[in-house]
Predict the structure.
Amino acid sequence: MDIVKTKELTKVYKGSVCVDNVNMKVKEKSIYGFLGPNGAGKSTTLKMLLGLVHPTGGEIHIFGKEFNRKNRGEILKRTGSLIESPSYYGHLTAYENLRIYTTILGLPEKNIDKVLSIVRLDRQKGKRVSAYSLGMKQRLGLASALLSFPELLILDEPVNGLDPAGIQEMRELISSLPQKYDMTVMVSSHILSEIDRLADEVGIIANGRIMYQGPLDALHKTDSSKSLEEIFIDLTGKEKSL
Amino acid sequence: MIRLLKCEYLKTRRRYLLLTVIAAMTVYFIWTFHGSYNAEGIRHGWALFLYQQPVVNTIFMPFFCIIIASRLSAIEHRGAMLKQLCTMTDKGRLYDAKLIYGMFLMSFCVAVSWIGAVLFGMYKGYSGVFPLGLYGLYFIYTLLTVLEIYTLQHFLAIISKNQSVGFFVGITGEFAGLFSLFLPNIEWLRKLVPYGHFGQLDFIGMYGWTKTEHMRNVYFKLMDTENFVFVVALLILIFYITGRYIFVRKEV
């Protein structure tokens, strides 16, 4: 079953097309890599899936239901997200930050210790977030997204700003989520190598348009003489990934 | 909504919001009750307070509204929290919860100022029977005016990351309100500008004013309440509906 499906999803900002007729399909309990260069429309697309940005056109279906004002609350209850930079109250501790989320969502407080353990912040839970490193803040952001153990997890550039050890740790964590917690994960990134190691299927977006969608193996096979990076560059034009 | 209000309280931990309110009220009381009270002042104490307090409120209450609204909204903007919170709850309810919490704090300020004034009057031994009815009305109308201003300041604080927008509008409004108090010929300014509505709280009449005996000929009177309540209530509704609509439609 496709847990996320978009049909001709479009977003136009002041005459400039940011997302252009995107038809996306994300299979249940898979890791979907949403890949594209900077400014391709990844974050905007993900924000539309969460209702943070209003689409100019097209449809979004999540969990088989149309995403509209009526269904939004019900759908978002089953969704967790980390969009762009992690959000937090710097003057509060990690535990206190997550306690605010559990209060809003009506979740048991025992979930806080569980997710802090998953992201390995349990020893720093009493420390104010303003004193955290960037990597720790990213992990806290992931913890807040996991708090309700959602069916769908949307992560926008979760490894941004992390060192290689942090990237590996985050990658291992994300890889385990579908099997351990029956989650479907959508991960966006401009780092090709990370998505290559992580995702079952990819959607490659450039200039707001989906250039390729499907299994990574099939992408490799489109031109076996070229590396994945070269195929990616061909698809997205002259723009290079970092 | 109860959960969201609880969250508003949890968010203000270590922001010393209550301390800010106490400090602000302390300055307010010092300003209100400073000065020597001669025999004439004590004799007309209850009237003197109602006479001078609109001016004091025009200066202080909008300032409190700016501070409280700004502090409650700044914590969301600083940590880019709105994009996270808007995926967890309805945007409109988020707006309402923050507004209600801020209104509660401002109501607390008004209540404390009123109780402080009554206790001070009793301590100083103001003459005559305490005019409970008029003071009750004064409390309600002051509270309505404060909530009106706070509804506007709340919208300005939450809609813009730059808190100086609300600060600028609030301070400008405050000066316009103060200005309108001293120019009775431009009564339209006092009626139109929310910050001038404190000046509409006119419970004291005076006749035969002289420089030396100006407080001798005072009397209590009832102001035009119906129009006042209608205008203030209408403005609260307009600020609330407009602000909420814009906030809900705004992309995060």
